[in-house]
Amino acid sequence: MKLQKAERHQVKLRIGLSGASGFGKTHSALLLAYGITNDWSKIAVIDTENNSASLYAHLGAYNVLNLNEPYSPERYVEAIKACEKAEMEVIIIDSITHEWNGKGGCLQIHETLGGRFQDWAKITPRHQGFIDAILQSTAHVLTTVRRKVEFDLDRNSNGKLQVQKLGTKEITREGFEYELTVNFELLNEKHLVKASKDRTGLFMNKPEFVINSATGKRLMEWCNQGISLDSVLEEINATTTIEGLRHLYSKYDYLQKDIHDIILERKAEIENVNNQMIPNNTIIQSHKTSNNGTINSNSTTSSS
Asked: Which of 22, 133, 228, 290 could form a disulfide with 77 if both were Cys (CB 3.0 to 4.6 A apart)?
């Protein structure tokens, strides 16, 4: 357990886009993804919406992985891993709604098990595995989710029942929004959005706007304001002592998985340089074993 100075290093974005059908979730996600990576070939869409992602093929040569039913959490995880294996920089999951209430999704699994409250003990870990795959992905992940209008029955001043519109709600398990870097809510068919959650401070309480590739670029600039892996690697390469490497390995403990092999390579380079820098006229310590088996240290000077 160690207390250390808080520093925002380079992060992977977790972006949500929610809205009703026809509000432009897929199109907005693609433009956002291109702004993030500036390379269509490094974008993958996990498409659960009947090949709707291919409708925007004119935008660029992005990749599509069609995911059909059953929409179990494990199949979503498998699709995410396939995109990571292909070294995609941005993964768009369009949409995550099916994992919750699609055929073979969590709600249907719960019903199949009997629909009892205690049955959630079997389903929740499976759903959490899906959430963890998003949060721990090596790529930037954009998720789309459908919204539905919620209504309620209430009595007016005359005692008559009337339908009252409460607003809209995302069709996924409650609480997913809190896992995201930014959550954009699409408001209408004109693709206008507002941020319902924003850790970057770039969009919260700002006027409604239309997402484009520049939005993705702004998010990447925010990411790169922290300590990037590249800057850490430069620091490692500039280090000339083994003790300095130990310090860096401890300092950047959240990056140890990424820098472990680089640290070892630099360590070998430093040791090799140190061995080559011992000239013939340097005073060295020679250790000789005495007759009684003890170690004696004698300073000797060698001549050139």
From this structure: 133
Q: What is the pLDDT of residues 11-41, one digit of tens each?
A: 799 999 999 888 999 999 999 999 999 999 9
- Taking the C-alpha atoms of residue 12 and residue 1, their distance in angstroms, rounded to an integer, is 25
User: CA-CA distance, 189 to 176, in Å (whole number)?
Assistant: 24
Q: What angle do CA 65, 172, 180 make, to 5 degrees?
A: 80
Distance from C-alpha of 197 to C-alpha of 175, rounded to nearest angstrom: 12
The residue with tokens 């339908």 is 163
Decide if 101 contacts 107 (C-beta within 8 A).
yes
Report which of 64, 27, 25, 71 is spatially closest to residue 44, judged by C-alpha positions.
64
Q: 282, 164, 220: which is closest to 15 by C-alpha?
A: 220
Question: Global pTM?
Answer: 0.72
Distances (CA, A) of 217 to 12, 13, 92, 213: 13, 12, 16, 7
103 DSSP 8-state letter:
T
Quickly tell me which residue has 């992602």 as its tokens.
Answer: 53
Which residues of 138-266 form beta strands (DSSP E)? 140-155, 161-170, 182-186, 192-198, 209-210
How does pLDDT run across 63-119, given as a tens digit for each residue? 999 999 999 999 999 999 999 999 999 999 999 999 999 999 999 999 999 999 999
